[in-house]
Structures are given as structure tokens and as C-alpha cells.
Design goal:
A hairpin with a 5-residue loop joins strand 1 (about 10) and strand 2. The chain is of the alpha/beta class. The chain has one domain: 3-Layer(aba) Sandwich (Alpha/beta knot). Helix content is about 25%, strand content about 20%. Helix 1 packs parallel to helix 2 and helix 1 runs parallel beside helix 4. The protein has helices at about 35-45, 65-70, 130-135, 150-169; strands spanning about 10, 20, 25-30, 50-55, 80, 95-100, 105, 115-120, 140. Mean pLDDT is about 90; it is low at about 1-5. Strands 5-4-3-8-6-9-7 form a seven-stranded parallel sheet, with helices on one face.
Length: about 170
């Protein structure tokens, strides 16, 4: 699992942390809560991602709430609003929908290439049917407790750091 290359994909600073040259794409389908968007922006900033793509949502967030949750990442990560057709414009990336679909594979048994694009759904309804039909790779985060749902921002964190672990550690 994972690449663990020391080649052109990253290099090391003195503190031994990699500076990533290839980053995943994060796409959020119709997110509703500004605090969740702020948390996702902050997580993207932790990885070094510069753009978060929000599909099917108007730019009507209370940015004071997004900014308060995102902290300093608010100044480093762009929130870009697009429609569903946006994913057709992304070439050479392997798409993964994070969803509890019957065909979904366990995140920890899935290999993520460097060029991964992750799609996360709405807090209440998940990923839209349009995207579920369009993207074949679906993954889930295993949950062993009685609660079988997870906050979208927590899901983003788990997926991004699993991608990072597989490809660089």
C-alpha cells in the first residue's frame, strides 16, 4: 500500500516533514454548514491543499463562521464554487466518493494514487445521485460502534490523512 517514493513527488525539509508537490483534490457536494466548511478548509490547509471545490451550492455562507473555524487556513485555502460538470474537467485523477454505499470499499483496504480526487456529501443527504452514478469508486470509513454516521469534516480529515500516510509515510 502507498508509494513511499523519495523522488519527484516530494522532498524533505530539515525537520524531515515532506513538502508535497502533488496533492489530492477535495470536492464537497452541496455542503450546508459554514462551520463544517471552515473545518474542511482548516484540514485542507493542514495538508497544503490550496483549493476546496464546493458543488451545487450558492456562495451564501456566513464567512465569519467559516473563518472562525478555519483559523489561519482561511487565508491560505480558496473556496471555489462549481457545478456537477466540474468533475468532467479534471483529467488524470482517480475519483473516490466517500459514502456508505453497498458497493463502497473499506478506506483502509483501498490504495490511493497520488492523483486522487475525493468527493464528500451533504451533511444530511450525502452525495447526490448524479455523482453516485457518475463515479464508480466508492469508499467508506469503517465504524464499529452503534452510531453509523460521521460529520463530513471528520470524514475529510480521516480520508486526507490516510491518503497522506499511504503516499508519503
Amino acid at each position: 500500500m502507498g508509494n513511499n517514493n523519495t523522488g519527484a513527488n516530494y522532498f524533505f525539509y530539515k525537520n524531515k516533514l515532506p513538502v508535497l508537490k502533488q496533492l489530492p483534490i477535495v470536492i464537497i457536494d452541496n455542503i450546508k454548514t459554514p462551520e463544517n466548511l471552515g473545518s474542511i478548509v482548516r484540514l485542507a490547509g493542514n495538508i497544503g491543499i490550496k483549493d476546496i471545490y464546493v458543488l451545487n451550492q450558492k456562495n451564501n455562507f456566513r464567512y465569519s463562521k467559516v473563518k472562525a473555524t478555519a483559523s489561519n487556513a482561511f487565508n491560505n485555502v480558496n473556496i471555489v464554487f462549481k457545478d456537477n460538470n466540474f468533475i468532467d474537467d479534471i483529467n488524470d485523477y482517480c475519483f473516490f466518493i466517500v459514502e456508505t454505499d453497498k458497493s463502497a470499499k473499506n478506506i483502509f483496504k483501498t490504495d490511493f494514487p497520488l492523483k486522487s480526487a475525493f468527493i464528500f456529501g451533504n451533511e444530511a443527504h450525502g452525495v447526490s445521485n448524479f455523482l453516485l452514478q457518475k463515479v464508480k469508486n466508492k469508499i467508506f470509513i469503517p465504524m464499529h460502534g452503534d452510531t453509523k454516521s460521521m460529520n463530513v469534516a471528520q470524514s475529510v480529515g480521516i480520508v486526507l490523512f490516510e491518503w497522506l500516510r499511504q503516499n508519503f509515510y
